[in-house]
Amino acid sequence: IEWGGAGSGASPRDSAGSRWVGAMSRPAPLLLSSLLFAALLLQLTPTVLGQSTLKLSATLTIEKTDDKAKTNEQVQQLLAHAKEKKYEGNVQRFLENMVVQLQKVMDAAKVVEEKKVSEVPKDFTPAKYRVKAMPKLNAKKITVKKMTAAELSKRLEEGKDINFKEPMLITNATGLFADGAWEQVRRHWTASRIMEDQHLEKEFRVEYWPQDKARARMVGNMLQMEEPEMISFSRYVVNCFHGTPAKPKLPGQNTEHCEQTVDAQSMVHNLTELDNLRIFSQIENALPHMAEFRRGLVEAAGDEIKAILGKGAERWKRKEGRMSYQYFVFGPSGSGANLRPENGLPFYDVMIHGSKRWLLLQEDEMDKVAQKAREALEFDKTSAYMFFEEKLPELREEFGLKKYVEANQGPGDLIIVPSGWFRVSLALADSFSYYETILKGKETLAALTDNNVWRPQHRYFRLAYCYTPDTVG
Predict the structure, then answer these.
(1) What are the residues whose beta carbons fall under 8 Å from the beta carbon of 186, sequence distance 6 or more?
(2) Residue 124 CB neighbour total at 10 angstroms
C-alpha cells in the first residue's frame, strides 16, 4: 500500500495508483487482516528468534465414521518412512508421540467393543430416542392363567403340546432358552444394532403409515386402498421415537400408529440369526413346510404371475407370495394395533425388550359385544391406546363386556394364545418381541382353511381351488 507523504493531504492509493474515493473509505477486510498479521509477526519475531526451544502443536482429528485402525496403520507407516529416511529427530519424536496417542485410542475402542459384546442392554432404544414409559396403564389385576417355565418344560418332556384351552402367561421364561441364548437375543435385537446394520439399512423397509394418512379413499363408487410409505428402519425410529428436549415424543396419541409387525426373516442376513428364538423344538409345526412350498411355487410361476398381474406382480409377491409364521413386533411406548384375531392359529409371544398390557377374549364374547357396540364405538378399529384409555370402560359398563382376561408382559415373559381368541396389546414402554404362529393338528388346519377361504373376517374374499392328492403331482 502506498500512502501520501505526511501533511500532503493526498488520499491513499493502492499499488496500481488507483485512488480510494471518499475521505471515510476503509481498507478492504483482507488487506486489513494482512496488515494486522504483518504487525503481529514483526512484534513476535524478536521473541521467537530469541528462544532456545520452539514448540509447535499439530492436531489429528478423527471423526466417528473414520476408520481408526486404518489411520493408525498409516501413521505407523509414516514413522517407519521417517526412520528409514533418517528424518530429523524432532520429526520422528512427533510421529512416535502420534503413534502412542493413537494406540491409546485403539485400546479404548477395544474396551468399548468388548463391553458392548458382553453387556446386556436393558432397553430397546438408546436414551436419545426413548419414549416415556406408561407403567400406570398396567392391568390392575392379572386374570390370565399362569405357569412357570419349569412346569412348561416338564409338560413338553411328557409329549404334550402348548395348545391350551385358555391363554397362558409363563413368567420369566428365559429358562426355555439354551445356555447364553437369552443374553445374545437381548444384545442382538436392539434399535441401535439394527440401525448400524448397513445391510438392513439398505435392504429392509418398514411399511409406515403417517398418522394423518388414510389407508383407503373413495374413487367414484369404489374403495381404493392406499399404499404405505416404505422407509428404512432408521427413518422409522426418527419418525416414531425421536423427539427434542423442547418437544419430547409423548406416548399415546403421538405414537399409537407406530406399531410394526414384520416377517422376522426379512430382518436377518441368514436364518441362523433366528435359531436362538426357536424355544419349542419339540413341537412339530407344519407352517415352515407350507412356507417352503409356497416359496417354491411362487418362484416356479414367476413369469406367469407377472403376465397375469402386470405391474402389481411385485406388490402381490411382497404381500401374498411368502407365507410368514415368524414375526417381530416393535414400537414405541403407547403403540399398539386394534382388537383382532390371529387368523385362527395359536401363537406364542416372547417379550425381548419393553413391556405390554394384553386383553384377550373369545370369539363368542367378541361377537356378543360387537353387535351392541360396533356402530357406537367402532372398537374393532380403535388403536390399543384408545381402547384401554376410553373404550374398555364403556364396553364393561354400557355393553356388558365380562368374559375376558388381562396380563402384563415384561422382558422374558411368554404369552401363549390358543386358536379362536381375539387380542389387543398396548406397549407400555419401547418394546420388541418375537412371536410365532403354530399349525399342528387336523382341527387347527380345518379352522385355518375355514377362516381364510370360506368365512373371511377381513371384508374381502380369497379365491381357492381344491385338488385331490392324485392331481397334485
Answers:
(1) 120, 121, 352, 353, 411
(2) 27
